Amino acid sequence: MRSRYPLNRFAALLILVFGVLVAVLKAQESPHSLWDGVYTQEQAKRGEAAYGERCARCHGTDLMSGDSVPPLAGADFLSTWNTKTVGDLFDRIRTSMPADQPGTLNRQQSADIVAYLLSANKFPAGKTELATQSDSLKQIQFDAFKQ
Amino acid sequence: MLGAALASASAVVLGQSAATNPDWPTYGGDLGNTRYRAFDQINASNFKDLDVAWRFKTDNLGNRAEYKLEGTPLVVNGVLYATGGTRRDVFALDAASGELLWVHGEHEGERGANAPRGLSGRGVAYWTDGKDARILYTTPGYKLVALDAKTGQYAKGFGVNGVVDLKLNDDQKIDLVKGSIGTQAAPVVAANEVIVGAAFVDGGSTSSKTTYKGYVRAFDVRTGKRLWIFHTVPQKGEFGYDTWLNGSAEYSGNTGMWTQVSVDPELGLAYLPIELPPGDDYGGNRPGNTLFSESLVCVDLKTGKRKWHYQFVHHGLWDMDIATPPILGDIQVNGKTIKAVAVPTKQSMLYVFDRVTGEPVWPIEEKPVAKGDVPGEWYSPTQPFPTKPAAYDRNGISEDDLIDFTPKLRSDALDLIKSYAIGPVFSPPVLSKVGGPLALLTLGTNNGGTNWPGGSFDPETHLLFVSSCSSCVVSIGMVAAPKEVSDMGYVKGTAGQPVVARMAGTGAGAGADAIAAAAKNPKTVPTQPPGGGTLFRALTVSGLPLIKPPYGRLTAIDMDHGEIKWQIPFGPTPDAVHNSPLLKGMKIPPTGETGLSVGSLATKTLLIAGDGTVGTSAAGVRGTVLHAYDKLTGKEVGTVPLPAPQTGSPMTYMLNGKQYIVVAVGGATYSGEYIAFTLPAQ
User: Is the pLDDT of residue B17 over 90?
Assistant: First the structure.
């Protein structure tokens, strides 16, 4: 009896399964720690400019000299964000900063600023830029201290 | 229920009667800001068993979540009143269950968007005459609102439909929409009047030497009529005007009372803690000692007339302000009872006076201090130094204060500070130079030391408790300001970097109205040219704090003798230290935390305060907790986990035979929340 599923459909299914497998494997390869190089130097450079324009007015050019402003470098910053995710930091910046104009940083700018903060806090750069989707950034653990 | 309860509403008084008041009817627990209650249901044996009674999340009190919830709620007869959220809404909760009873918010549009102190503020004031009962608060846009405590509706007969516009009737002309003046402090009610101060945008790199003046006013709590005004910057012909040289009192402003006032209703006196005028670190435009900047001013409660004053800092250049609520308590010194007022400060010196006469309880000596090199600056040749108690924390930096875990870290720190100036308290700010010094590195200046949460006081043992940051380094470098940035001449900055008008994290433009305005007009204004090079200059050594532990302290001061009774590192060890590979294998004792000071609550046997940062506790547990200490020894006797750092100061009340503790928490990913703790049912 002739199959109700023609060969071309079977092939399509196979290709789909293969595609999903590849995607899963690729996802497993992607970095999940800050120490794997989760941003690029180029992105941090863009982030530095954005930081200067949008953040330095309160947080200072040294990232830690503000008046009643949480520092963005050093012991306090690392302790605060340790064990959270890069996505948590990204969302906090994207939704609540700058404090006097929250919501005016787009996803790309927010990701670039995160890259700059990581760079300023001496986390290594890598070959891939930080993504701009919260879900994907939440896969990156903020391991502030190398185990 | 509520009507009957209000009829027996508690009095807001000082001393022993306040100590047993089951309610918490004013910001500091009593008008002397002691933050004390003689309750002992929650004690050393059961503190660790505390359960969450209820939580109140403030996310929806405004158009986005807030992360800076600094309020201390009030509780009167079973109802809790507080402010919260980016709109600074006022709400009433059933204090046993946390159920919302009413909520009130003001939509102030552009006026609110221009507020120098947005966000949730520090709380409300309560008033009753036994029949009528009111809740009063100030909006971000600087209106004083009176609400019916029972319903949350505007109070009848107060101001115009329940509102007094604080931008009016202030002995100066203030733009009703654009005028940048406000306050985040809780108003305080005493003797049928409500006292209100003023705050401004941060003065670190202010754009102008000309600002509004921060006068203090009292209003009739029934009608809203102005009863008195105290000119914190004296007007021509008034005492102190001539301490502003070259007529600088005419244009200089700020000098406001942005923190909490204290009142002794029996003496009929109010104690006003006053900040400095602009700029925070440059005073070339305000030569002279400039009364009543950085002064404690005692005024008559009925008239606002000055009784006495004491200036803590002459011609301030460090943003020391007076940041904490003055603490009123009666002490025994050399066998004599003294009605005292004690003021913890950012510079970690405790100033103690006879609050009737203004005489220092222990001598305060004028000592010579160094002059600086900033062009146009005017320097006071001396500054006052209390002889007792000793400074309870660092208020300057010497090489001895630098990190010393290992010889390498120490030599790296010594290398780092080669580019900076250091020195003791009152060292002058420096002109920033590319070849150095880039800035003066300071401790005990604009971050403190002890900041706005202040301290607490036990009227039984006469112990005063205060938390302080021992490691909050602030760099003060001065640079010439281009005219388009500021007319100040010199502002805070670093040589070789763009000069910008700086803002602070005090909530300027951050409230719900500002957010709504930004959403309508999302065009952004660059605040600084792109860096084009590395802007980053960390004041850390391999990611570790530049200053050696302890990073933060909690201190008990015996006020009868002016001696430190006990002192402990306060707060968790930062992960940066606990997990540092550079310190692997070393046994580092608990360091205390690197954050700003936190508020405390004293009870019959305990001192209670929550971590202000996340880190690792002395017990080796990572997180954030509310601590209880034996108040006589500083020994920790219990902890309760908090979901996020303490951001407001803890308070307590008794209701239906149960003791509750409420504290505001928030930070990082955790938006503002009030949490109530009580003991589990037996």
Answer: no
In a domain, A74, yes or no: yes
pLDDT at residue B288, rounded to an integer: 98
Contact B532 A49 (CB under 8 A): yes
Question: Quick check: B95 and B678 in contact, CB under 8 A?
Answer: no
Distance from the B505 Cα atom to the nearest Cα atom in chain A, whole angstroms = 5
Q: Which residues in B lie closer than 8 A to residue A95 (C-beta atoms)?
A: 64-65
Phi, psi of B226 (to 5 degrees): -70, 130
- The domain in which residue A87 lies consists of 31-137
CATH of domain B2-517+537-678: 2.140.10.10
- Collect all residues of chain A within an 8 Å Cβ-Cβ radius of residue B579: 82, 144-145
Which residues from A are below 8 Å from B534, CB to CB? 48
Q: What is the pLDDT of residues B594-612, one digit of tens each?
A: 999 999 999 999 999 999 9
According to DSSP, residue A144 is labeled -
Q: Higher pLDDT residue, B416 or B619?
A: B416
A63 in contact with B, Cβ within 8 Å: yes
Q: Mind giving me the DSSP string for B632-657?
A: TT--EEEEEEESS-B-S--EEEEETT
Interface of B with A in 356-395 (CB under 8 A): none
For B195, B391, B432, B548, B576, the CA distances from B399, given in Å and listed in that order, are 45, 18, 21, 10, 22
pLDDT in tens, A65-120: 666 788 898 888 888 899 899 999 999 999 889 888 888 899 999 999 999 999 99
Q: What tokens were used for A29?
A: 């390869």
A94 at the B interface (CB within 8 A)? no
How many structural domains are present in chain A? Answer: 1
Query: In chain B, which residue's Cα lies nearest the Cα of A69?
Result: B505
Instruction: State the SS3 of A21-62.
Output: HHHHHHHHHCCCEHHHCCCCHHHHHHHHHHHHHHCHHHHCCC
The pLDDT of B165-177, averaged and rounded, is: 98
Residue at A17 is within a domain: no
Please give the Cα distance from B99 to B79 (Å, whole number). 10
Q: How far is it, in rounded angstroms, from Cα B315 to Cα B306? A: 21
Per-residue pLDDT tens over the stretch B452-507: 999 999 999 999 999 999 999 999 999 999 888 889 999 988 888 877 766 666 77
Determine the pLDDT at residue B289.
98
Residue B501 near chain A (CB below 8 Å): yes
Interface check for A48 against chain B (CB to CB < 8 A): the answer is: yes
Q: Among candidates B517, B675, B659, B552, which has minimal Cα distance to B108?
A: B517
Residue pair B588/B405 in contact (Cβ under 8 Å)? The answer is yes
Q: Which residues have CB under 8 Å from B602's CB, separation 6+?
A: B34, B35, B36, B37, B456, B457, B458, B463, B465, B608, B631
Please report the ipTM that was assigned to this predicted complex.
0.78
Domain CATH for A57:
1.10.760.10
- CB of B521 within 8 Å of a chain A CB? The answer is no
Cross-chain residue pair A67–B446, CB shorter than 8 Å = yes
On chain A, the residues whose CB falls within 8 A of the CB of B446 are: 67
**Are the beta carbons of B64 and A145 separated by less than 8 Å?**
no
pLDDT, residue B532, reads 39
Res A27: pLDDT: 47
A-chain CB neighbours of B451 within 8 Å are 68
Nearest-5° Cα angle at B281, B543 to B114: 90
Domain coordinates in residue numbering, chain B: 2-517+537-678
- The chain-wide mean pLDDT, for chain B, equals 93
pLDDT single digits (tens) B497-530: 877 766 666 777 788 888 777 766 654 444 444 3
Tell me, yes or no, if B543 comes closer than 8 A to chain A by beta carbon.
yes
Given this model, what pLDDT does residue B303 score? 98
More confident residue, B187 or A63: B187
Residue with tokens 């600084």: B528
Q: Do A78 and B575 touch (CB under 8 A)?
A: yes
